[in-house]
Amino acid sequence: MKILVINAGSSSLKYQLIDMQTEQVLAKGLCERIGIGGHLKHSPLFGDKPVFDEDLPLPTHSEAIAAVIDKLTSPEYGVVASMAEIDAVGHRVVHGGEKFAKSVLINDEVMAALEECTPFAPLHNPANITGINACRAVMGDVPMVAVFDTAFHQTMPGKAYMYAVPYEYYKNDGIRRYGFHGTSHRYVSSRCAELMGRPIEELKLISCHMGNGSSICAIDGGKCVDTSMGFTPLVGLPMGTRSGDLDPGVMQFLMHKYDYSIDEMLNILNKKSGVLGVSGVSSDFRDLDAAAAEGNDRARLALDMFHYWVAKVTGSYVAAMNGVDAIIFTAGVGENSKETRAAISSYFGYLGVKLDKEANSKRGQDIMISTPDSKVKVFVIPTNEELVIARDTRDIVA
Ligand code: ADP
Q1: Which of the listed residues 14, 124, 208, 212 should we mutate to test ligand 1's pocket, taking the one with most ligand atoms within 8 A of CB?
Q2: pLDDT digits over 283-321, tens only?
């Protein structure tokens, strides 16, 4: 069975074609500048076909999907003979509200429910829906599955997902913590249980997804019990450009003083804040590491804040679960920055965490980076959201 995994953004579309017998990625790629020109980078990872990396007109997502299918099936760049070899499509969808606690086969009813979730993710869900519609138009009856970033977090208890505002905002308007990165937290937590050789049902895990966007998730017995992102992905940890948690009074103060509209204010909090805002250097942790090493105090402060917040939120989840068996680092920063992992782990002495320096310096593999006698284990597990989407799609279609 071969499954196409699609992650559609407003002007981009990422894809992977995965052979489910071997879970090998046959080809992957990225359409960019959809609607404002068009560019496709298609990389066959099977056979010795060349990479296609060129501008081509992509006025809408439909042309983008058609171009992807064309490349996947072309004699020169392709990895399958025809579209008939693609058995199903798995779509990443950002927000499933309270309607979707797991992945679902897409039909007209599901499409209507996705539209209803759009107000919760006005930037992301419309792009996801456009991607699904384009795929349905180009690929006809091929079964399709929606996999939600929010679904894994639907097991949170009310005490974790409720905001302490008048209850009717929850009841009437769906105001609550939803959480994001669920597919990633789900993947690394189940992989961690495998690596520990123990059933996930008996484990307390904390997964730290640290990329451009970052969130932490407390997973007790395989179920999410709390997570740091909220109603939107803006809160929790300070991120590349997002502020993370903030006293709402700050917004009122700045909006009055500088006459910002709410959109201007949110643009500052989403795009100009986080480690970029504090450092004035960059949102990229590699640049911050370099600047801090050269003595840039604000880069140092931004990094210190990030480490502190990860440690602080992790500690709160140890309290919430009354213990922890393992802490997991994943995503761009978590997988690549040994300095970040070491700095965060230095807060975990009270948990009996002992870091194995040599293991911590390795990259690109699932690895335990704590010493064998470390009371709480620490792992680096490269995330693989596409594989989760493909597996869910296979299971649902089968
Ligand atoms: P996204 O949240 O967009 O999926 P990723 O998980 O790919 O992002 O993470 C991207 C971030 O990972 C980059 O912005 C960069 O800060 C960080 N990163 C990648 N490689 C390194 C590295 N070697 N050291 C530190 N940070 C890194």
Answers
A1: 212
A2: 999 999 999 999 999 999 999 999 999 999 999 999 999
